[in-house]
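Contributing new records

If you add data, match the layout below exactly. Sequence lines come first and carry their own label; structure lines follow with theirs. Keep one chain per record. Anything else will be rejected by the validation script.
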Amino acid sequence: MKIGIVAANGKAGQLITKEAINRGLDVTAIVRNKNKTVAEKSIIKDLFDLTSEDLKPFDVIIDAFGEVREDKLHLHQDSVHHLNKLLSNTDTRLIIIGGAGSLYVDDKLETQLYNTPDFPESYKPLSIAQGKVLDDLRKRNDIRWTFVSPAAEFIEDGERTGTYILAGEKFTLNDNGESKISYADFAIAMVDEAVKGDHIQERISVLSK
């Protein structure tokens, strides 16, 4: 299996790259500048300069791109739109790191977490931007996409426990009433999805046990 990881130099991207390589997968880091990952192969190119030929060799593209600056949040939609254009009507799967804010809190899947009273206002613009990406994906049947939402508390330097809970569209808590996951355990879930491909054109979510 050949996997390309977009924005592999980021914290999440580096851990996903390492996890995939440790499992013996053929991994290429797709980065804008010098490759800082453990991957021996790389494509050094801005995401928006990627072409369909660049992505043609891969079975799976993992999109680890992220942007938190409020005036740049549109890049979430713009970047996925570009990747969609390149991967349209191909067999290559696209797995995207989403956010927790767009998860639903009700059984009817009508109210999203970022619309609940206690949701921090400072995180709302980012959650809305990531939610728009998911809305766009749901309208397409020409892309083999999977949108993966981490838990509400996404811990950059958290430990790798080697386990996680796989959930779906609903905001889920573990037995301790927590919604959290480390970047390292999230990387396991991302590579599991890349290998198994069990959730094509679906949103899934993951949290720690």
